[in-house]
Design goal:
globular, 14 helices, mainly alpha, 64% helix
């Protein structure tokens, strides 16, 4: 099993891996050939939403009691100390709904009209809203999400990934990412997102830290007892966090399958499966992009180099897909294994593309991003 440890204890990692592999393959079997519905698993979604409401209510109650203790009695009084502490704890544990990544290079419609037009066409084809913010970064990745209480929709395209993909694969990538705005992913919902973060934040907050160094015996014993209490509370909260997240992520993986189906609807099944093959060979993509970028070449050469690498390793693709099923299985993975995602598409009715990106239009889009590509090239050159 070529994978990093999740807990650090061999027997625990083996047990959780076996459970994850069985759960992942069982979910695939249950979903294969059936509608993937945007509403998802009612039990998982209900549990996630209920947990979020309970956590938010608990933090709100903590803040209310803390404020009451602070102002209810004449000053000075001892109730102020626990009151202020409770208010501070409530502030630290408050739900967080994300913010715009400061590393994101935000694009304007005036700067990239062809790209924005393509995004609009893909969004219309799958019935998704257009993002409020479109940006690029230097990762071999792409993501779509919502930030803030207003849930501003954000689309980020990693330049190494975007520049390395063919025209059909780019449409498939947009279809998948924009599909997250309509696939019912619990990680992006205002009502369900707190369940993914609040217990984890609480566990971090209670993590024991040694505060007494070189004190007397009484101070050292008191510090040891306090840290032992913190350790127990932290581990209980962390265990509850892991349990809740592992349940919620089952529905998140279902949402990923649906995003792939929306990707196939807009780019065709061929484009969507080719995109997944590109992702399963991400290491080759990384090496090709870095090599060609250091040689002063742009995205046109990235695609050529990646095509050559794919042709050379075409016989290994089925093996890589199968390995991904085992390597990427995890109770805490938001995505199903890439091999299963591809198999889900090939087992469904084959679809033709509804949006076609021509080579000429793709070149115009790359020309709009020339400044961002050049900035990425300099970063790669300097990092060498």
């Amino acid at each position: 099993m070529r994978r990093e440890r999740e807990f650090g204890w061999t027997w625990v990692d083996r047990w959780t891996y076996r459970m994850a592999f069985r759960t992942t393959t069982r979910q695939f079997t249950e979903l294969a050939g059936r509608p993937l519905g945007a509403r998802g698993s009612s039990r998982a979604r209900t549990l996630t939403a209920l947990a979020s409401l309970v956590l938010v209510a608990a933090v709100f109650a903590l803040a209310v009691v803390g404020v009451w203790l602070t102002v209810a009695f004449p000053f000075p009084n001892l109730a102020i100390l626990p009151g202020v502490a409770m208010v501070g704890l409530a502030i630290a544990l408050r739900p967080r709904f994300g913010r715009l990544d400061p590393e994101l290079e935000v694009l304007s419609r005036d700067r990239a009209p062809e790209l924005f037009a393509l995004i609009g066409e893909v969004a219309t084809a799958i019935g998704a809203p257009t993002p409020d913010v479109v940006g690029v970064d230097s990762e071999i990745n792409a993501y779509a999400g919502a930030v803030g209480l207003r849930r501003r929709k954000v689309l980020c395209l990693g330049l190494p990934l975007w520049g390395s993909l063919t025209a059909n694969e780019r449409v498939a990538l947009l279809g998948h990412e924009l599909g997250h705005f309509v696939n019912g992913d619990p990680r992006r919902g205002l009502l369900t997102q707190p369940a993914f973060t609040m217990l984890g934040s609480a566990a971090d907050l209670f993590r024991p830290v040694q505060t007494v160094v070189g004190g007397g015996l009484v101070e050292m014993v008191g510090d040891a007892l306090g840290r032992a209490f913190q350790w127990v509370i932290s581990r209980v909260l962390f265990a509850a966090h892991l349990l809740l997240v592992s349940v919620a992520l089952r529905d998140s993986q279902r949402a990923e399958y649906l995003a792939d189906e929306l990707s196939a609807r807009v780019a065709g099944s061929a484009g969507a499966t080719e995109l997944l093959d590109a992702l399963v060979t991400a290491e080759s993509m990384k090496l090709a992009v870095r090599r060609e970028t250091r040689a002063g070449h742009g995205p046109d050469r990235w695609r050529s180099a990646l095509a050559e690498a794919r042709a050379t390793n075409s016989d290994r693709l089925p093996l890589l897909r199968q390995l991904s099923v085992r390597d990427e299985a995890s109770l805490f993975a938001a995505h199903p294994p890439t091999g299963l995602r591809r198999r889900m598409l090939t087992d469904r009715q084959w679809q033709s593309p509804s949006v076609v990106l021509t080579e000429a239009r793709m070149e115009r889009i790359d020309a709009e991003l020339a400044r961002e590509y050049e900035r990425f090239r300099r970063t790669v050159a300097w990092s060498g």
